[in-house]
Amino acid sequence: MSRSERKMDHVKNALSTGQSRQSGLDDVTFVHNTLPGTAVENISLTSEIGGLHLSSPVFINAMTGGGGRNTETINRQLAQLANVFHIPIAVGSQMSAIKDSSEAHTYKVVRQYHPRGLIFANVGSEASVEEARYCVDLLEADALQIHLNVIQELVMPEGDRDFRGALERIEAIVSSVNVPVIVKEVGFGMSRETVSKLYSAGVEIVDIGGYGGTNFAKIENARRDDPMTFFNDWGIPTTVSVIEAASVPGKREILATGGIQTAFDAAKVIALGANAAGMAGRVLYWMQNDGFEQTISHLELVFDELKMIMAATGAGSIKEFQQSPLIISGNTKAWLNERGID
Ligand code: FNR
To answer: Is residue 287 marked as binding?
Structure first.
């Protein structure tokens, strides 16, 4: 199967396998504030990632690129969407543009349609410093994402089998590129031990990419004759992962992706400590099923509702919202107890 067919297979299978809603977000409850003292019109949604100013704490996370016209069209539409809301957008893995420069245009279209907006370049942890620099330059990117996707690779018949040296390469990239580096998972979550190692390697921003949304084990298993079904339920739920990352000492920035579908989902991960929430599969689903205009309406609603939720809790800013009192119950509480995290 060609790379371009595989990319479109990912899109198709991401849409058909859907999102599992096992992110643990139902275990998070806001403590009601009867005297919030807020006004909706004064709520500020601005946030920060790596010193970059965000007009709202939601971004479109890495999905596609490389592999021809279909992925270029999806990237153009996602870039147009990001441009409407002035929100950041991450491109999909640029490893294919490194291997074949004729594919570069499928990524460049994102800068073309989001000319002054924030764009995150994206490479795998196998990338060299030179390759990472090339990917940033190609898009005049504002930040660089390095994705970690061990389980996806293992389930892919043609995937990597050797994961040595990733942390060392990440460390080299962090110290050599002149944009903030975000290390991200793709839906299996990060433990506090992983986050701690990344911090020690100089990484300032992690996107915990938790379990409970798009499931790359299922997506890749759908392409196998002999599915590794044991990986379908493998991963750290988004809620647990944000809390684990936030429990690591030292002030760093956390992004939370993995099953974010609504303002309420985004609100919960931010209240747990994330600076911003990433959406991938849900935005793709809206685009493919409801069209561009409806997707704008869906996102408008996300931002309007986020302000309502913040107003209800008494938080006027994202910084205040990150300190919200919350009740954690169910499996999330059990997991955190087992792990000795308060
Ligand atoms: C992805 N994701 C992804 N991530 C990455 O770093 N590089 C990539 O190339 C891709 N490709 C990709 C394709 C498609 C079709 C989807 C749906 C997703 C992973 C994505 O950024 C995100 O981490 C996960 O999808 C979890 O978030 P959601 O989908 O549950 O919101």
So the answer is: no
Query: Any residues with CB less than 8 A from the CB of 51 and at least 6 apart, and which?
Result: 180
Nearest CA to ligand 1 atom 14: 63
Q: Residue 1 — very low, low, confident or very high, per pLDDT cuts 50/70/90?
A: low
How many Cβ atoms from other residues are within 10 Å of residue 291's Cβ?
11
Helix (H) or strand (E) holding 185: strand 181-185
How much distance in Å is there from the Cα of 124 to the middle of ligand 1? 13
Residues framing ligand 1 (Cβ under 6 A): 10-11, 14, 19, 61-64, 92-93, 122, 145, 147, 184, 186-187, 209, 213-214, 257-260, 279-282, 284
Q: ipTM of the assembly?
A: 1.00
pLDDT in tens, 190-234: 999 999 999 999 999 999 999 999 999 999 999 999 999 999 999
DSSP conformation letters of 25-42: GGGEEEPP-S-----GGG
